[in-house]
């Protein structure tokens, strides 16, 4: 990790169900995103929580980490506790669809969404994600997508008004940073 918690190691869930974001990819993501100070962050498919916890370490105001796998949820909670971030990190142990519906109903809005679904589900997630995510994004939000490099991400994603886009490949991992127009949709 960088920032306030530089050098700290995170617990990852045992098994193969969770694929942690590689350190170099995580560093690259935050280099592409830029300053995160004061932002509200949403981490869908949080896994170990590495991306959201990195954002908090770099000064984000708050983070909501969404994960449904029990082992991953336990790892996230352990990492949040170990880093002393319980006051700024909220762990939501639900399916991403249900979590987004609840966030929308609660009127929550996010400045940065981190989306790193299991690679085998990327196509299915991208078919539903824009319409479900748009209502919880603040004006001029950014969305980071992580996916297998072999997958082609469409230039336009319905419901998201993309004003700027950066695509990069790091080994077998693709990353797209989408900056949205005011209002997010």
Question: Could you explain the architecture of this structure?
Answer:
This protein is α/β, with parallel strands linked by helices and 185 residues long. The protein has one domain (3-180): Rossmann fold (3-Layer(aba) Sandwich). Helix content is 29%, strand content 26%. Strands 3-2-1-4-5-7-6 form a 7-stranded mixed β-sheet, covered by helices on one side. Strand 4 (110-115), helix 5 (122-133) and strand 5 form a beta-alpha-beta unit. The termini are far apart. The mean pLDDT is 90.
Largest sheet: 7 strands, mixed
Q: Identify the CATH class.
A: Alpha Beta
- Whole-number count of domains: 1
Class of secondary structure makeup: alpha/beta
Fourth-tier CATH superfamily name? Vaccinia Virus protein VP39
Give the CA-based shape: globular
Task: Walk me through the topology.
Blueprint lengths: L22 H11 L6 E5 L5 H8 L4 E5 L3 H13 L6 E4 L3 H10 L4 E6 L6 H12 L3 E12 L13 E9 L2 E8 L5
Parallel strand pairs: 1-2, 1-4, 2-3, 4-5
Antiparallel strand pairs: 5-7, 6-7
Key attributes of the depicted protein:
seven-stranded mixed sheet, Rossmann fold, 185 residues, alpha/beta, single chain
